[in-house]
């Protein structure tokens, strides 16, 4: 399982100093980007060299406990399903160093042709790394 650190900034919070619910999606996105980068893939290079993009198709999130301003967090990424043109991730946000899950979700990401925005197979080299690197 891959994990990426984030810190709660003031801009991430609502009037009460609690992370605004939509910002958990940003944390999930950043962690998936860093996970892909850790496997040796940059999204702009995938677009330019392989002609594909990864786009979010579906998200389910459970908000369990609040995260607060200035709190260090850790966002985990785990591939739980891989198909020809899609991936399903399970992701969770916890306090840095462990602890109870604050938010958890499942994110389905589709691979699409960068020009037509139609489903496309995950490039073979990328698919192998995804399976081996999870």
Features:
single chain; alpha+beta; Thiol Ester Dehydrase, Chain A; 3 helices; 25% helix
How would you sum up this structure, described in words?
By secondary structure, the protein is an alpha+beta fold. It has a single domain, classed as Thiol Ester Dehydrase, Chain A (Roll), CATH 3.10.129. It is 25% helix and 37% strand. The chain is built from three helices and five strands, in the order βααββββα. The chain has helices at residues 23-38, 43-50, 124-133; strands at residues 2-7, 52-63, 72-82, 86-95, 103-113. It has a five-stranded antiparallel β-sheet. A hairpin with a 7-residue loop joins β4 and β5. The longest helix is centred in the first third of the chain and has 16 residues, at 23-38. The N and C termini lie close together (6 Å). The model has no long low-confidence stretch (mean pLDDT 93).
Quote the distance from N terminus to C terminus. Answer: 6 Å
Count of individual domains: 1
Topology as a string of helices (H) and strands (E): EHHEEEEH
Tell me how many strands there are: 5
Strand arrangement within the widest β-sheet reads 1-3-4-5-2
| Largest sheet data | 5 strands, antiparallel
CATH topology: Thiol Ester Dehydrase, Chain A
